[in-house]
Amino acid sequence: MSSGDTAERSLEHWSEAGRTGMEAFYALATEDYHQLALAADWPTLLAGRAHEGWSLLDVACGSGKFPTALRRYTDLSAVPEVAYDLLDPSEFSVAEARGALAAPRPVLRG
After folding, report:
1. HSE on the CB side for 68, CA within 13 Å?
2. CB count, 10 Å around CB of 91?
3. Alpha helix stretches (DSSP H) within the chain
4. Of 110, 18, 103, nearest in space to 61 by CA
5. Which helix (H) or strand (E) holds 56?
6. Model-level pTM greater than 0.85?
7. 47: closest CA among 90, 81, 83?
8. How far apart are CA 83 and CA 5, in angstroms?
9. Which are the contacts of 29, defined by CB distance < 8 A and separation ≥ 6?
10. 45-65: pLDDT as tens digits
């Protein structure tokens, strides 16, 4: 790993070259995302703010694991379809999140 600044090290980690480390991290973090998905009544929280044509900005989207966990562990059927805008300094992360969220519900932008 380079001795550059934090941003450089982060971008190096969240890249194709850093995929092994990233996958090791997510092997541990998967349970955290599962617990976060169950920690709140997300369907009610989101449905109370959602409307047709709404969008959601996911800042520091990483690889899309949290919204993926929400879709897996909660019933979001009462929440209108959302257009995701993905924002992350790592183009690799945006591509990973876009792939994870591609189907069936989200409309992806950004």
Report:
1. 19
2. 11
3. 6-13, 19-38, 42-47, 65-73, 91-100
4. 110
5. strand 55-59
6. no
7. 81
8. 33
9. 65
10. 988 888 888 888 999 888 888
